[in-house]
Amino acid sequence: MTKIALLLASLLIGSSAYSQTTNGEVNPKIYGMDTVIWFGADFSLFRLSNARKMGKEEKLQEYIFAWNVEYKNSISNVKLKSWFNAKKVVNDKAFTDDAYVSFIPEQWIVAERHKITRAQIESHVKKVTTENTGLGLIYLIENMYKGAPVGVPSNDPPSTVHGYFVWFDIASRDIIHIYESGGRPSTSPYSVSGQWTIMNKKKMPKNKGMTGYWFQGMVDATVKFSIDYKNGIEKEETQY
Fold first, then answer.
1. Counting CB atoms within 10 angstroms of each CB, which of 151, 173, 183, 217 has the fewest?
2. Angle of the 208-231 helix axis to the 77-84 helix axis, nearest 10
3. What pLDDT sits at residue 202?
C-alpha cells in the first residue's frame, strides 16, 4: 500500500460511526451536478470541549486559524472533483476563511460536549456570502471533544471531531442534505502542508502537535464523508 493509502486506512480504523444523514436517507439531488461550490470548513458554530483549557480562548484562537489553513490546503480541486464526480468544483473560501471571527462567541471552550441544531445550521447558511450560484457545500465544525485517548480503557467517550457537511441551494439558501460525520483525532506524525504564505506563517501557532491532532480528526471525518458519498453514486452496469 502507498503511504497515502496507509494513512487513510489508519484514520478509518478509528472513525466514529454516526448516522449518515439527519433524515436517514441519501438525497439524490446532491448527485449528478456538473458544478459544486465548495466553501470548505467553517468554525462559526464551533466549540472545543476541554475543561482544562477553559478560559484560554484568546490564547488558543490561533489554532482555529491553523486548523482552517491546514484543512484548506490539504484538499485540492482534483481530489474534490474525484469525490463528487463533478465536471467542475469552485473553491469559494472568502466567507469561511474568517467567518468564525464574526460569529464564534467569546467563550468557545467548554467542559461538556457541544451540539448544534438544524435550526442553527439553517440560520447560519443564510449568512454565507458568495457571488457564485448553484449547489453549495460547506463543512460546519460543531465540536472537538477531548475525551479518552484511542485504545485506553475509560468510561469517557473517545476524543472526537464532529460536524456536518451541508448541501444547500445558494439562490434560495434551502438545505438540500445534511451529512453528519465524526472523526478521531490522531497522535500520528504530522507534517505541515508547506503551502503557507508569509502572512500565514506569522499567524500559525508554535505547537504543531495540537494543530495536527485535531486537524487529522477533521481529515478522518472528511474521508468517511467522501467514501459514503462515492458509494451513493449510481454505478453504470458493464456490458459484456
1. 151
2. 30
3. 62
